[in-house]
Amino acid sequence: MDNDIGVTTDEKERYISFSRNQFFAGALAVLVAIVFVLSRGSGSLRCPTQPFDIATYREQALAATPPNIIECAEAGAGGSQEACHLPRAERFQALNEKGITLWMTGLSGSGKSTIARALEEELVLKHGKHVQQLDGDNVRTGLNRDLGFSAADRQESVRRVSEVAALFNSGGVITLVTLVSPYRADRDEARKRHEDQGLAFLEVFMNVDLETVQGRDPKGLYEKVKNGEIKGFTGVDAPYEEPLHPDIDLPNNELDVDDCVEILMERLEQAGVLDGN
Question: Is residue 107 scored above 90 in pLDDT?
Fold first, then answer.
């Protein structure tokens, strides 16, 4: 015996060990019960089953733009950012051209990129103008690399490209946007964004029907759609909303590339874009 009440040291250690094991076993049982109840209930701690709505998140984030973002003190809160830059009139006169955005929309294979490249060559090589093309496939390698082809991602693609186009436009650059941009509301918002900043904007509709572009199929995409390799393709099993009142209508299945370039050059001349005064 190690003490007056007849309990040995070994017996005390066995009792303490037993009590400790009981405690841990009880705690584990309670934890398992909590997890079981939460997994079968509809409480707030249950893991959500609905997918994350990226479109709603973007809309809320854009609506909550911090009011204290001011490019320069001269602009002030909510004021025009034009006050932060060289006045456009002076810039345009120095460059001998005015900024404008030509937003070329149409089905894949409707000639957007082909005609834009030909127009760019005409403007740069023959007239010495500053031109920037923002092509749908090109921007997907960088600016829009994180976007897919859902309606929400297409909307975000148009928004981003519109913002970049407006920056080039404001800097006196003739900006050629070649983007399928299938939804009318998104294109209208791009126009509004330009007009709100006093920037010239022309919507150019590559007015070519589905049968024609399927026959062209320059990238082999329509063949992949036909074989079931691509789903949700614009104009086939995803919508394309034609412009109701485009500024320029180019039925280039009836016109060759040179004809289209001539029409676009005439509109640019009429808009005074080729002269900075």
Answer: yes
